[in-house]
Amino acid sequence: MIITMAHGSGGAATSELIDEIFAKAFDNDVLNEMEDSAVVPGSGRIAVTTDSFVVTPLEYPGGNIGRLAVCGTVNDLLMRGATPKYLTCGYIIQEGTDSEELKRIAQAMAETAREAGVTIVAGDTKVIEGGGGVMINTAGVGFVPEGVEISATRIASGDVILVSGNLGDHHATILGSRMNIQNSIQSDNAPLGEMVQALLEHQIPVHCLRDVTRGGLATVLKELSESSRVTITLDEEALPVAPAVRDFCGLLGLDPLYMGNEGKLIAAVPKAHAKEALELIRGAAYGEAAAIIGEVTEGVDGHGELLVKTAIGGLRQLDVLQGEGLPRIC
Amino acid sequence: MIITMAHGSGGAATSELIDEIFAKAFDNDVLNEMEDSAVVPGSGRIAVTTDSFVVTPLEYPGGNIGRLAVCGTVNDLLMRGATPKYLTCGYIIQEGTDSEELKRIAQAMAETAREAGVTIVAGDTKVIEGGGGVMINTAGVGFVPEGVEISATRIASGDVILVSGNLGDHHATILGSRMNIQNSIQSDNAPLGEMVQALLEHQIPVHCLRDVTRGGLATVLKELSESSRVTITLDEEALPVAPAVRDFCGLLGLDPLYMGNEGKLIAAVPKAHAKEALELIRGAAYGEAAAIIGEVTEGVDGHGELLVKTAIGGLRQLDVLQGEGLPRIC
Questions:
Q1: Structural domain boundaries of chain A?
Q2: Handedness of CA B155, B156, B157, B158 (dihedral sign)
Q3: Measured distance CA(B120)–CA(B298) in Å, rounded
Q4: Distance of alpha carbon A320 from alpha carbon A209, whole angstroms
């Protein structure tokens, strides 16, 4: 098998790459859970995660790769209910990069870390050949409060699915930047600690949290439906998409359901707590456009399924992103 | 400032890059210690570190980038006296990479992790454009036993400096591979847990441990002399270099003092414990060629200094690696 760009899409080809190569080689109980971050025993429960960031352009409306690299890893820790504490960062820098740009990236990283309440405690730099460009890996360490059990396998019949805001903003921003399109769209890259903390502090019995990144909402929910062996039915009309993004997608023939975000999460909570959860998310930073978007019922024959009720009354099956799907942003 | 390959050398230019950009932006007490890994409070003391790995060729005599990526991070944890426990890995893969090569790399990573006693608990893959190639970031988490205080600032007058084996093997291997030279030189890439554990178990009051990687022994010891404000005087004749590497360096005009290793450490221990420490390291895996190579005396006017007594009786000052110094391997 020769690796192609499709293997980086976050969809089916990425799963194949991970299953065939890495899951087989590294096979262990913690990794096999394939959660957003690993929860491991130390004294207490420690959450550990990592993510690498490659994006062109490095700076875009609403953020840059430095802010992105903090948000992505902090959010992965939060998705297990962990309190993010420490970050490491590894910079791979192409020769020819302007140190002024590097300063702005590092500065945004520092500011976003402060916003998210994490400390960057270790770092590494490597310089490679090339014509200017930066790739950043961050790893994160957090602590999971006692009693918190949030996992991809805990979504249950009777849950509702909430999303914390508008879909597709980051993806549309990056594509628009590359095409030099002038519009009002900004990346949603943001740390989601305030809304997660609000849910936990108010004792909402959250079953699952997942940030909606590469592969988009459909890929994330399809994977979760399989992990929890449930049917998730989305209401197309309830899916929040900002008007400018909707127009942008319409023009280019893109589907917001498969577009990446960098500051959105889905939450699965029991129906009885859905309204309170929605209010809590809406009241927290970056949650003002949150919405209830779907319901969970029993899986069929132990399988997971993702359906969407379309605006004209149909019921359509959704799969994970296949191949390239749409113009790549990472 | 435009970033050049020299900024990745591990020497003076790298220090400038880190000081000017990252240390300023991320400024905090833990990071400012600039140790091999950060020791942070959790419940207990947790060590955290990260390293990115770029090497051409990806596979070389004695190892590959997968083994390297485990050893580098595990060794950084060990250098604080921590017991390594968990690793994360982030793969950045160029399209065009053959999945068979990727399998061998992941397999070596898994085997080396088992050897080192760590579990790979989280991972990430990204695919970028290019013509085949892999970069790996690993981050590591370990736990520091109570009472262990090993740091770059604790080297004291009256200590001796030990090195755990021959210098320059990894660097010579990579250069030889690139030049298609057939010889017996193999990379020393190895996890150093057994020797560190032996020192700690036998209550050797180790003041400082540091693995000798990018920049070589001279850069590492010069930096440590500054952190601890001491004078370190090396005995040139005591420096262990394998005959094949000595010949290779002689032919190419390379200085083993500035060449990178991936399975060697230096230890600073009080003179009274030096002989026992040497025997313990020699008795552990990868320590058979260990040697006592120098002595520590007071710094002059609070400054650090690195000197070498040459074979013909002179005394020469050594500095950190400047500019590119010698053909780059990472």
A1: 33-144, 159-317
A2: negative
A3: 43
A4: 18
Among 3.90.79.10, 1.20.1510.10, 3.10.20.70, 3.30.1330.10, name the CATH number for the domain at B40-144: 3.30.1330.10
Closest approach of A265 to chain B, Cα-based (Å): 19
What percentage of chain A exceeds 90 in pLDDT? Answer: 74
Q: Tell me the fold of B159-317.
A: Phosphoribosyl-aminoimidazole Synthetase; Chain A, domain 2 (3.90.650)
The pTM of this model reads: 0.91
DSSP SS3 for A135: strand
Nearest to residue A102, comparing CAs of B22, B149, B296, B94? B22
- Among partner residues B1, B38, B86, which is closest to A121 by beta-carbon distance? B38
Same CATH topology for B40-144 and B159-317?
no
Q: Does domain A33-144 have CATH number 2.60.40.10?
A: no
pLDDT band at B214 (very low <50, low <70, confident <90, very high): confident
Cβ distance of A126 and B95 shorter than 8 Å? no
pLDDT tens digits for A178-223?
999 989 999 999 999 999 999 999 999 999 999 999 889 999 999 9
CB A121 within 8 A of CB A153: no
Give the percent of chain A with pLDDT over 70. Answer: 97
| CA pair distance B55, B43, nearest whole angstrom | 37
CA nearest to B21, candidates A29, A260, A131, A127: A127
Instruction: Encode pLDDT of B260-295 as tens digits.
Output: 999 999 999 999 999 999 999 999 999 999 999 999
- For the record, the structure tokens of A211 come out as 């940030």
Q: Best of B26, B65, B99, B109 to disrupt the A interface by mutation (most A CBs within 10 Å)? A: B26
pLDDT, tens only, B100-135:
999 999 999 999 999 999 999 998 889 898 888 999
Contact B214, B305 (CB under 8 A): no
Nearest beta carbon to residue B102 from set A21, A51, A123? A21
For strands A305-309 and A230-235, give the pairing. Answer: parallel
- In the structure encoding, which two tokens stand for residue B304, read together? 């650090």
